[in-house]
Amino acid sequence: MPPMLPARQFSALRLADVLSSCHAAVLGRENALALAVVAKAVVVLVDGLGVSSLRARAGHARYLTSKLTRAGVVDTVFPATTAAAITTLTTGVEPGRHGLVGYRALDTANDRVVNQLSGWDDGMPPETWQRSRTVFERAAADGVPSFTIGPKRYAHSGFTLASLRGALYVPAESISDRFAAARALLDTEPRALVYLYVPELDVAAHAHGWESAKWLAALEALDSAAGRFASGLRRDEGLIVTADHGVLDVPATKHVLFDSVPELVAPVRHIGGDPRCVYLYLDETPGDSEAEAATALAETWREVEGDRAWIFTRAEAVTAGLFGTVDDEVLPRIGDVIVAARKAVAYYDSREPNQSARSMIGQHGSLTDEELRVPVIRDGAFGA
Question: Superkingdom, according to UniProt (predicted)?
Answer without folding.
Answer: Bacteria
